[in-house]
């Protein structure tokens, strides 16, 4: 319950701190905005005064022409030439100054903005010197009064330009300070949400354990009374970008777990905090996992020692003990301690020696934890002592850590925790290993698993890939990264469109390519910087790394042209139409031809053949036909009409019923048939003409 209260109190204190920083943040943002508005106003004023100065240039040119005719004004003519020449680049600078400074300020390039203003300052000062020199030469010369007035008008305007530029420089310094303050406070504010989430989670976990204990509380003589120990809660790493932190879930009864890093190799940055938690268990009938070859304990342990050799790449100056304990007993170590020792009396529920069931027993314990610097080991000791002498308990059957029972669960388990940072200068690829040793009484040491983290201090490198001088709209803009450690994980991509600003386009994206959606004829500049899995970041690019011009993609296929030389042959209520393929298939295979008749609109189709038959026509009606072709882009135009044809029925001969098969009849009276059968009373002479 007290753990939950402490976590909530800390949460509230951080909430108050956040609100203070947020208030300062809003004030600083408002100040930066107002300063930016003043800067832009000064730039606008600079334009006005600058153009007044530029208005004098035509006058100076006309005076130069007049001076060409005065021999005594040769030196002054040279001065006028210098002023006119000096104004030429100034004019170009003035016309771009406002937009340039505005863009540089908006995108945080305050140094560039100040350099631009300084360049104007130096140039205008040189003009001012020339004007003053010219004024000195024309004093008292009546022939040059007009020139003196012109110079006199130019000088105050030039002085105004110098004053405004100097004000811009000063304001830029103030604005830069505001921006840096905002950046610092933004980073601070970004760390609060994960910190609150962690603190709230701690409070909820502890409070739930407290409520569960109250809910499950039973009579003291109930042997089934559940007493699950409060587990150690890993601190995690609130606010650490791209790194899970915390501790993995433990399943082995005797093991060590450490910080969860990036990827399979558990990558971390040098200097990161490592939180280790060592679990131990006196194996018993309630143990969920029995390691191969291990046997169950038959008596409670009176002494438990845990030692952890600390890797050479761990910085012992940052070592800090965490809590340790067993069952429901937790020894709370004050923050920042490397040595800790305490004695206490605990009441435990142990197996009764007088019969079945359990009984409560008061035990005197000594608990100790310390860092052995010369031997680079972290050590923990919990032992049962004789309350009369303070020495280890003489009874070999006595102990405080029973074999893990079926119930209450966790009575035979314990833990030890520590915090330590890795050495900040460790090179990339360094492995930080942690393997603990656990000893119960005088038994053989139990060696845990080895937890390994690999360190990465090198930043990735990246480049734009596959971007040529031109890129089709709808094509791909790609980039890639190389990292010798944890590997490139995300990218920041900048883009410049035409003469526009160089600005962040994609922020912290895992993508390595996107579809190009540019505008044809416009130049696009790109640059990329990568971040790896542990938070190492490549330096921000100072400008465009590759430039490409957007072009329209090549046109796709078009519909084919019209078929040619269409002809038709009439039949009975039908017509067969034929043609020649179109002159152009539009860049794609022709998949269908369609024939239609006029009148009637009767149709036939074919998938490749150059003829087909239109049926359902009316005999005796004149028809013409047209054909069109179709490909993947669509159907082309209809062809010209074919010559007309008229379907008709076939000619059918008069009906004839033979009297006798193969018999010819002579129709003349009195004659006979050729086979001698009487038909008309006579025979047919050879060579006679008969009508049949």
Keywords:
single chain; 692 residues; alpha+beta; Ferritin; Immunoglobulin-like; 7-stranded mixed sheet; 4 helices; 27 strands
Structure commentary:
- The chain folds into five domains: 2-194, Ferritin (Up-down Bundle), CATH 1.20.1260; 240-351 and 359-455, Immunoglobulin-like (Sandwich), CATH 2.60.40; 462-542, Immunoglobulin-like; 564-635, Sandwich (Immunoglobulin-like); 658-692, no CATH class.
- A hairpin with a 6-residue loop joins β7 and β8.
- By secondary structure, the chain is of the alpha+beta class.
- Helix content is 29%, strand content 28%.
- A seven-stranded mixed β-sheet has the order 2-12-11-4-9-8-7, with no helix packed on it.
- α1 packs antiparallel against α2 (74-106) and α1 (2-67) runs antiparallel to α4 (145-215).
Number of strands: 27
Q: What name does the CATH topology of the largest domain carry? A: Immunoglobulin-like
Q: What coarse outline follows from CA principal-axis ratios?
A: flat
Q: What is the domain tally?
A: 5
Coarse structural class: alpha+beta
Low-pLDDT parts are 218-251
How much strand content do the residues show?
A: 25-35%
Distance, first to last CA = 133 Å
In DSSP terms (H or I, runs of 4 or more residues), the helix count works out at 4
CATH architecture of the largest domain: Sandwich
Helix content: 25-40%
**Please, what is the oligomeric state?**
single chain
Task: Profile the largest sheet.
Answer: 7 strands, mixed
Backbone CA Rg: 50 Å
Mean pLDDT: 77
Biggest sheet: strand arrangement: 2-12-11-4-9-8-7
């Amino acid at each position: 319950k007290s753990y939950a209260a402490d976590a909530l109190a800390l949460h509230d204190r951080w909430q108050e701190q956040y609100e203070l920083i947020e208030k300062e943040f809003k004030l600083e943002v408002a100040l930066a905005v107002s300063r930016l508005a003043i800067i832009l106003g000064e730039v606008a004023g600079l334009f006005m005064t600058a153009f007044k100065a530029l208005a004098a240039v035509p006058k100076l040119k006309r005076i130069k022409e007049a001076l060409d005719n005065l021999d005594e004004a040769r030196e002054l003519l040279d001065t006028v030439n210098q002023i006119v020449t000096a104004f030429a680049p100034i004019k170009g600078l003035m016309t771009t100054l406002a937009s340039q400074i505005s863009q540089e300020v908006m995108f945080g390039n305050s140094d560039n903005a100040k350099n631009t203003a300084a360049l104007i300052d130096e140039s205008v000062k040189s003009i001012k010197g020339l004007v003053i020199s010219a004024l000195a030469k024309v004093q008292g010369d009546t022939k040059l009064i007009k020139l003196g007035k012109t110079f006199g008008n130019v000088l105050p305007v030039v002085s105004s330009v110098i004053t405004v530029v100097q004000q811009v420089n000063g304001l830029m310094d103030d604005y830069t300070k505001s921006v840096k303050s905002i950046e610092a406070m933004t980073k601070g504010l970004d760390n609060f949400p994960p910190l609150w989430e962690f603190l709230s989670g701690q409070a909820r976990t502890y409070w739930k354990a407290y409520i569960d204990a109250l809910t499950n509380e039973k009579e003291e003589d109930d042997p089934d009374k559940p007493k699950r120990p409060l587990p150690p809660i890993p601190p995690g790493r609130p606010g650490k970008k791209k790194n899970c932190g915390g501790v993995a879930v433990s399943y082995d009864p005797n093991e060590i777990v450490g910080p969860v890093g990036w990827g399979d190799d558990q990558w971390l940055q040098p200097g990161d905090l490592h939180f280790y938690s060592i679990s131990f268990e006196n194996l018993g009938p309630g143990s969920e996992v029995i390691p191969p070859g291990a046997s169950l304990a038959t008596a409670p342990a009176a002494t438990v020692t845990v030692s952890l050799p600390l890797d050479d790449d761990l910085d012992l100056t940052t070592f800090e003990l965490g809590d340790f304990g067993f069952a429901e007993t937790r020894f709370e170590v004050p923050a920042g301690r490397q040595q800790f020792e305490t004695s206490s009396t605990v009441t435990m529920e142990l197996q009764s020696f007088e019969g079945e069931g359990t009984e409560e027993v008061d035990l005197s314990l000594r608990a100790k934890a310390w860092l052995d610097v010369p031997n680079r080991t972290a050590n923990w000791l919990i032992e049962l002592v004789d309350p009369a002498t303070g020495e280890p308990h003489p009874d070999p059957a006595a102990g405080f850590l029973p074999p893990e029972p079926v119930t209450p669960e966790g009575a035979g388990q314990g833990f030890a925790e520590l915090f330590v940072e890795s050495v900040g200068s460790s090179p990339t690829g360094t492995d930080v290993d942690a393997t603990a040793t656990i000893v119960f009484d005088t038994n053989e040491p139990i060696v845990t698993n080895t937890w390994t983290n690999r360190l990465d201090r090198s930043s990735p490198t990246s480049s734009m890939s596959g971007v040529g001088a031109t890129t089709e709209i709808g094509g791909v803009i790609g980039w890639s990264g190389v990292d010798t450690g944890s590997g490139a994980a995300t990218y920041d991509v900048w883009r410049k469109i035409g003469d526009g600003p160089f600005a962040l386009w994609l922020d912290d994206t895992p993508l390595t390519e996107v579809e190009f959606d540019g505008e044809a004829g416009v130049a696009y500049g790109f640059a990329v910087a990568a971040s790896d899995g542990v938070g190492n970041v490549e330096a921000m690019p100072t400008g465009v790394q590759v430039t490409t011009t957007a072009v329209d993609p090549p046109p796709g296929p078009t519909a084919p042209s019209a078929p040619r030389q269409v002809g038709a042959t009439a039949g009975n209520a039908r017509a067969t139409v034929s043609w020649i393929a179109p002159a152009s298939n539009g860049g794609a295979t022709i998949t269908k031809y369609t024939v239609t008749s006029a009148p009637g609109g009767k149709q036939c189709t074919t998938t490749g053949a150059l003829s087909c038959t239109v049926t359902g026509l009316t005999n005796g009606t004149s028809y013409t036909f047209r054909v069109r072709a179709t490909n993947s882009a669509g159907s082309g135009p209809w062809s010209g009409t074919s010559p007309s044809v008229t379907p008709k029925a076939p000619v059918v001969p008069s009906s004839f019923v033979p009297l006798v098969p193969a018999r010819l009849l002579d129709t003349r009276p009195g004659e006979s048939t050729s086979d001698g059968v009487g038909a008309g009373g006579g025979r047919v002479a050879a060579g006679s003409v008969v009508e049949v």
